[in-house]
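Batch 3, record 17
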Amino acid sequence: MTNFENMVICRCEEVTYGQLLSTAAEHKCTARELKLRTRAGMGFCGGRTCRVSVDKIIESVSPDITPGDIPLKYQPPVRPVTFGTVGEKK
Amino acid sequence: MSDVIIIGAGPAGLAGAIACAENGLRVTVVDEFIKPGGRLLGQLHQEPSGDWWNGIKEAERLHQNAMNLSVDIRCGVSVYNLEKCSQNWNVHTSIGTLTAPFVLIATGAAEYPVPVPGWTLPGVMSIGAAQVMTNVHRVQVGKKGIIIGANILAFAILNELQLAGINVERIVLPEKNPNSQKAGEPEEVLKSLLHASHLAPSPLLRFGSKFMKKDWIRKMGINFYPKNGIKINGTPLQLRKAALEVIGKDQVEGVRIADTDANGKVIPGTEKIYEADFVCIAGGLYPLAELAAVTGCPFHYVPELGGHVPSHSETMETPLDGLFVAGNITGIESGKIAMAQGITAGLSIAKHAGKGKNNINNKLQQAVQNIRTVRQNAAIQFNPDIDRGRSKMKQIWEDQHNNNNQTQEKIG
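Prediction for the assembled complex:
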């Protein structure tokens, strides 16, 4: 079981399944709070890899959320870009 | 300046570009990858008719058609934001901001993994990555592979790996847990596979499918499922085995696998390590809708379509003026459907732009009908209930169109 808890869910920020479960249990988190507390989904890939897994964990720990809502917000930039790209001039 | 900016040069985006350009619109297509074609580039399979579907050829054909119509195609360009500014859309890209009154988002789908302990070891990849390495980059992924996850995507790509002479030793299920959910339950997996059984080269699966639609026969099928699996072109599909962990020091060396009961519960004492130098995880696909989301477009959760999809009509328009969608962003289906949707979106844009003369309405209706026809004749169906999903979205759209009392959810 420890093996399972040590399993990485968010690869960019190296957040494990165990960390997500214990944080959710301790703070009775909303999806957004769970993300902010653990940084799951906030790394380089913008959550493209772990979003579905994090959503499922949220569903399993807080069963009363409506499945229709998008639990985690999307924000620009949706791709990794340099400050030079988004800034005015280099 | 272009009239239309299309994000994504896959089957939907290129078909949309062609339809727009044929109706006199100036089109720019941007794509993140180094060459156009999108997921077509990885596809190679034999249709039930015996004809081969060669995605690379299809991509070349679409690319050539688009070039002949002077479509401006820019590869290696990422779009990181999309916003409306008065009458125009600003498409923020890695080469600067492009502006046009119409935007078609054809970003396709993304793969989701089923995490398994040890899945971050080098040598573990998504099944789609194995496809890209094999068919696009022509790199041998390994000598001895194990696929974790049994779904349509896994079988389609297994077949491609086999065609390339790559040895896949077995397909097993992920261990049943809150994350793998139905993907770890043998009976659920069998049920979903039966809808695609005409694709299975194994006569047993094909034959069985007619009978296994009945619950009790299916349960019996799972209870008596051969321990060593049923072979698919030589690779055993082992529905009663679950992957517990990918093991290895610096890279994949094997997978710890256990036998399971009919419900997917691990039978203690049956664990065994199977050697492998690569592991493919086949989770599934979900609509890649992040750009639609940042525009504020309303979304709906339609499981049959693969998750959250932007609100859209049958003619591929969204509630936002000038914003259109086509392809897998609207629901997970085959490349042929994506093309048919792309054509529809292109004609729809032409109509909104006042192009295409009198017969544009007819053309548009024909294009919508064509999507249905292609769907009915599809060899591969990712979700057996796709029709229900499409009807749901249509109903939602019509309800909202009829009364502006909107009950859409906003993202976030």
